[in-house]
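Action item from last meeting closed. Structure (110 res):
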């Protein structure tokens, strides 16, 4: 959607321009913001991405993903060598899995 159309839509919803509309509805879900703005929720997502919002939330960085894993004891990847080595977890289950993995490798097992 060309920018002037975004501004037109935003003005109809009572905002100065589309960036103001995105900022004013930033605390709402896409569906709620879509209702306020009178657009579809994929449009809200497009506007937010264009304004530089929500991109980090929608796509966590690798480090954020690792932190989320370590903070969630229920994640099924705990207790694996992958959890210890690649995801950086040092919980007892991952540490034990890593020790086992190293022992097996040292012993020539697979
Ligand atoms: Zn772990």
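Sequence:
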């Amino acid at each position: 959607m060309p920018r002037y159309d975004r501004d037109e839509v935003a003005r109809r919803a009572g905002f100065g321009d589309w960036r103001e509309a995105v900022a004013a509805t930033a605390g709402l879900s896409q569906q709620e913001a879509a209702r306020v703005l009178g657009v579809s929720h994929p449009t809200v997502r497009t506007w937010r991405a264009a304004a530089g919002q929500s991109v980090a939330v929608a796509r966590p960085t690798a480090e954020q993903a690792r932190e989320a894993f370590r903070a969630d004891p229920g994640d099924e990847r705990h207790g694996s060598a992958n959890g210890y080595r690649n995801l950086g977890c040092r919980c007892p289950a991952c540490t034990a899995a890593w020790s086992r993995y190293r022992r097996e490798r040292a012993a020539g097992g697979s």
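Note appended to the action item: The CA atoms of residues 79 and 92 lie 8 Å apart.
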